[in-house]
Amino acid sequence: MTEHHPPLGTGLERPRVPHDSAALTAWLTTLVRNREYGTLAALRRARGGTNAHIRAGWYGGDDHRDLFERMAFLFAIYHQGRSTPSYGHGSLGAAARRIGDGTGRGPDNPGAQRLLDRVVASRRIPWRHLQHVVTRLRSCEQPPPSWTGLTEDLIKWNDRKARIAYGWSVEFHTPPALDRNTRTDPTTRKDTTS
Q1: Model pLDDT for residues 149-180, shown as the tens digit of each residue
Q2: Which residues pair with 91 in a beta bridge?
Q3: Coil/strand/helix, residue 74
Q4: Phi and psi based region of residue 48 (left: phi greater than 0; alpha: psi -120 to 50; beta: remaining)
Q5: What are the tens digits of pLDDT across the range 21-42?
Q6: What b/e string do you get for 13-40 counting C-beta neighbours within 10 Å, with b at 16 or more?
Q7: Total H helices, total E strands in the chain
Q8: How far apart are CA 67 and CA 78, in angstroms?
Q9: CA gap 100, 81 in Å, rounded
């Protein structure tokens, strides 16, 4: 049996399916919220090929199927054993600032520094190192990066104009006083004395 393909130019070509990072995040967080632990366990299988991986790939559209399957894997690794989903916040560089312990976090923690250095030095998407970042954030009980933002960043990983790795490095090394996420409103005074 042969498959019939319409000739090009007939207007019957299959339209390209775009990706939807936010929809992937919404689906994944729903799995956690609904306690669908079997599906999350299937996503933690690194080799993929499960129905759960295929479903995650649907959100990647025609061009990013594999990337979305791998993002679902990272999400499932972080959420193993958790009953409350985390959408995360900030970039991977900002999240890596949260890695550490009582002796130091982020740039003050040699392990966090080495890990980020490995991530940003990679020409290809550094999946193994990203898995280590997610695992370290989980073990430090720190929130992950924004899953939607991370997905979008990885889509642009090889775009030289986007400079994703550079941006992550800048956010990792930004002094706390200048960090956008911790800045307070300049009109608010912390020390109000009368």
Answers
A1: 999 999 999 999 999 999 999 999 998 776 55
A2: none
A3: helix
A4: left
A5: 999 999 999 999 999 999 999 9
A6: eeeeeebbbeebbebbbebbeeeeeebb
A7: 9, 2
A8: 17
A9: 21
Tokens representing residue 115 in the block: 């890990």
Rounded Cα gap, residues 97 and 85, in angstroms: 21
* Exposure b/e, 148-167, CB count within 10 A at least 16 = b: bbbbebbbeeeeeeeebbeb
Tokens of 37: 């632990």
Query: Which amino acid is present at 101?
Result: D
Of 111, 110, 97, 81, the C-alpha closest to 178 is 97
- What residue spans of the chain are helical by DSSP H? 21-33, 37-43, 51-58, 65-78, 92-96, 110-121, 127-139, 147-155, 164-173
Q: Can you tell me which residue has the tokens 């009109």? A: 187
Contact partners, residue 84, CB within 8 Å, separation at least 6: 32, 33
How many whole angstroms separate alpha carbon 15 and alpha carbon 64?
Answer: 15
